[in-house]
Amino acid sequence: MDGSAVIVGGGIGGLAAAIGLHGIGWRVTVVERARRLADVGAGISLHANGIRALDALGVGAAVRAAALPQYKGGTRAPDGRWLSRMDGAALERALGTPIVGIPRAELHRLLRAALPPECLRIGAEATSAESVDAGRVRVAVGGDSLDADLVVAADGVGSRLRGQLFPGHPGPVYSGSTVLRAITERPVDLATDFTLTWGNGAEFGHIGFRDGRVEWHAVLNSPPGVRHSDSLAAVRRRFGGWHAPIPELLEATRPDAVLHHDIHELTTPLPSYTAGRCVLLGDAAHAMTPHLGQGACQALEDAATLTAALATGPTVESALTRYDAERRPRSQSVARAARQAGRMGQQLAHPLAVAARNAALRLAPSGVTMRTILRHADWTPPRWT
Questions:
Q1: What pLDDT score was predicted for residue 40?
Q2: What is the largest CA-CA distance in the chain?
Q3: Residue 113: how many CB atoms within 10 A of its CB?
Q4: 275 near 130, Cβ under 8 Å?
């Protein structure tokens, strides 16, 4: 089966879906309101499920070559004591790949490079989608319109199309956490490839990149909308006394490089990821907190699953039914697990509860961390070739 698709949103999920559909012979247009396709941003970790989805889409090798495997790391307390460690080599033996770290801008560049330039319509905003007959959907783009056999809503956590397709859904809510993040201006020597450090209602994490630079993120319990005149200074005040290399990472960061976003999620699950010939993908379908590092990986799973369904299904309708049946239970389960991980991890604030959690982590068998990762990362994409 072939056809035409308009993909609303040029983020990781939207570009991945475009790659998949273009690869099976569909005519694809990606509509992105930004004038630049995510050439700014911090970093991202990809688990085995995300890498497997990229492999199925034909871009896994390029991403692996640009990413840094995460073999050494774990979770620490602010004074530097280890709470748990992760063996990346053992994870690689179990899944065929370790977790890898890559700058978001580089991942976006690699995804764009896998598409013909004429597929991308940049600086244009899709404002609505409506059926025009039994088999076509019309997308309003500025003062223009595009007709297609399928519309993929990959327009993020604040998805306008989701609000139109499911007007009774309450939409995203604030998670209670805000995140500040950046990439260091220069390389920093690290003893680990990644580390998470949990304090009271706060988390500081870092991942290394191939060029020696480091992505760091600081997640805090906070009311929504709080902003700082100097974000880097605010992070220094909160985390500057934590263990090395946290002070060194902040010292190697430009003040204007710090990004600050409140974290929103869909706590009310959608009743379906499809409506007519429109399909939701990525954060538009299942925005989740970052506490399992699975947001982008779930979007990549969506893209691979949608591609397989359309490549092998007899009709668009049957393909979308299959996509919804396969993706909605899994992605909503991962979203619930991410929310719970945040409550027991970064968001836990009472000193006695934090002390009890830390003691439990130190006493837990070494395989607990591995089993937690495997529970979500051991996913195999459906075949379509």
A1: 60
A2: 63
A3: 11
A4: no
pLDDT in tens, 32-60: 998 876 556 799 999 999 999 999 999 99
Q: What is the mean pLDDT of residues 143-147?
A: 91
Locate 340 and state its tokens: 């719970």
Quote the tokens at residue 345: 């991890």
Tokens 């319109």 -> residue: 145
Q: Which helix (H) or strand (E) holds 6?
A: strand 4-8
DSSP summary character for residue 354? H
Q: What is the mean pLDDT of the chain?
A: 95
**8 A C-beta contact, residue 95 and residue 374:** yes
Q: Count other Cβ atoms within 10 Å, centred on residue 134.
A: 8
Q: At 141, which helix (H) or strand (E)? A: strand 136-141
Across the chain, how many H-helices and E-strands are there? 13, 19
Taking residues 194-218, report their average pLDDT: 97
C-alpha closest to that of 73 among 215, 250, 207: 207
Classify each residue of 42-80 as buried b or exposed e, where b means 16 or more C-beta atoms within 10 Å of its C-beta. bbbbbbbbbbbbbbbbebbebbbebbbbbbbbbbbbbee
What pTM value is reported for the model? 0.97
Query: How far is residue 164 from each of residues 47, 123, 141, 305, measured CA to CA in Å?
Result: 32, 21, 15, 24
In order of their start, the domains of the chain are: 4-70+99-172+267-343 (3.50.50.60)
Residues in the chain, total: 385
Q: What is the DSSP string of 201-259?
A: SEEEEEEE-TTS-EEEEEEEE--TT---SSHHHHHHHHHTTSSTTHHHHHHTS-GGG-E
Q: What is the predicted pLDDT for the residue at 366?
A: 77
Strands laid side by side in the 144-148 sheet? 126-133, 136-141, 144-148
Q: pLDDT, tens digit, for every residue of 314-355?
A: 999 999 999 999 999 999 999 999 999 999 999 999 999 999
